[in-house]
Amino acid sequence: xxxxxxxxxxxxxxxxxxxxxxxxxxxxxxxxxxxxxxxxxxxxxxxxxxxxxxxxxxxxxxxxxxxxxxxxxxxxxxxxxxxxxxxxxxxxxxxxxxxxxxxxxxxxxxxxxxxxxxxxxxxxxxxxxxxxxxxxxxxxxxxxxxxxxxxxxxxxxxxxxxxxxxxxxxxxxxxxxxxxxxxxxxxxxxxxxxxxxxxxxxxxxxxxxxxxxxxxxxxxxxxxxxxxxxxxxxxxxxxxxxxxxxxxxxxxxxxxxxxxxxxxxxxxxxxxxxxxxxxxxxxxxxxxxxxxxxxxxxxxxxxxxxxxxxxxxxxxxxxxxxxxxxxxxxxxxxxxxxxxxxxxxxxxxxxxx
Length: 353
Hints:
The protein has 353 residues and is mainly β. The chain folds into two domains: 13-179, Exo-inulinase, domain 1 (Jelly Rolls), CATH 2.60.120.560; 198-352, Jelly Rolls (Sandwich), CATH 2.60.120. 0% of the residues lie in helices and 48% in strands. It is built from no helices and 27 strands. Strands 1, 4, 6, 7, 8, 9, 10 and 14 form an eight-stranded antiparallel β-sheet that branches. Strands 16, 17, 18, 20, 22, 23, 25 and 27 form an eight-stranded antiparallel β-sheet that branches. The N and C termini lie far apart (47 Å).
C-alpha cells in the first residue's frame, strides 16, 4: 500500500525526544530530532520501502530510520554518521533490544558501509526491507550502499519512524510503502564447532552493588541462552540494564555467563574471546583475566568494537567438567560477548557445550 507524505503531526506520531521540534529548515517543513525517537502510531510494517529526506549538520551526530518497532526500546535501526562521511562505518545497522543499541557488536560487512553524507542540504534515504534483508540507498544512488542480509530481530509487523542522537538531523518528506507479505522461514546458519554457543545467564545487576571480580553466590538463578551463529551472545536480547539515571555515571550493568567444557583428560587449549564493554574470565572458580574494551579505553580512536581475535588466553582444562564464567559489564554501545575454544594440539578430545 502506497502512502502519501506523512506530516509530523502529534496526532500521527509518538515522539520520545525532549529536544524534538517541527521547524522550517532549508525551505521545507521538517522534524528535528535531537536525542530520541519518533514512531508513527498506526502502521504495521513488516516488509516494504521507507523513504525520507534528511538534512545533516556536519557535526558528530547520528540519525536514521527505525522499523519493525515493538516499542520505543525494541526495533531495527539503520542510521548515518555524517561526521564519518566516506569512512567505512558512515552507515550502520544495529538491532535495538531493551533500549541497547548494539553497534559495538555488529560491525563490518553486512553491518557497516561507506557513503558520502553531505551536510546542509537535503539528502534522500531509501530503505528497502524484505524478510531478513535490508538495502539502504543514499542520495538517490542506483545501487545500495549498505546491504544487510541478516537482520537480527524476529520478523514482526511493527511501527516505523525516525531516530536521532546528539543533535541528530532534520527530516522531511517521510513516505512508506508496506508490502503484503508474511513472516519468512527462519534458516539456521552453520557455526564453527569451535565456538561456544550454549550458555547460562545470571540476572542483571549493577557493578556498584555486585562486584565483577568475584563469582556470584551459589543460589544465583541461571537461565539458558543460545548464541548467534557467529558465537555472539547479545546480552541485551535477554536482559535489560538495571542502572538508574543517578547511577549511570558511577556504575555499569553486569551479567555473569557460564558454560561447561568437558575434557577426556588434562589438556591445554586456547580460549579466544571478544566482549563489550568489560570482562572478567573465571575457569573453575579462578579469575584468569580482567579487561576493558569500552569506547576510547585503549586510545582516543578506539571504538570498542567486539570481535574474535584480539584477546586470547591459554587455559588448562582438568579431566571431566570445567566451568567457564564470564562477568560482562556494559556502559553503552553494545552488551555482549563471544568465545571460541581452539585445541593447542590436534585431537584433544574436547566436548564444547
